[in-house]
Amino acid sequence: MGGRTESIWDEFTKRNFSIPPLGKAEREINSIEVAADFYSKYKTDTRIMKRMGLQGLVYNMDWIRIFPKNSTDFNPEGIKFYDDVFKTLVENGIKPIPILYHWDTPMWAEIQGGFENRNVIEWFRNYLCIVFQYLGKYSNLWFVNDENSTL
Hints:
Elements: H1 8-16, H2 25-30, H3 38-52, E1 56-60, H4 63-66, H5 76-91, E2 95-101, H6 107-111, H7 120-135, E3 143-145
Parallel strand pairs: 1-2, 2-3
Helix pairs in contact: 3-5
């Protein structure tokens, strides 16, 4: 959806988990392909959050929604999606708190060595530049990655 391509997480789940077939009810709750479907339901979800009195939403962004094919050609449709989401949140008094990376390296980057390839620094920098150019106005609080751990 929205020009998003595959990440290492997509590949991992396809190799290691059974994804129920289309049309089966269990697909929606057991498949990364659909999951909670925030992509299609963010307006409804935002209304629910507002009724609950939430003031912020910590949200994992998809690098591959912004750069689905390579590190230089960004996806305007992906930027528009996030612009629409962030604008909707702000209009409802909910601060977007984006997480820029959630252990979902794009497959195009992984094929080139992923984080073992020093070019990943430039690839990620390009992603950040586009994100902040188009979406930086929506929040003053951003996280680089989620679920930090010590190794």
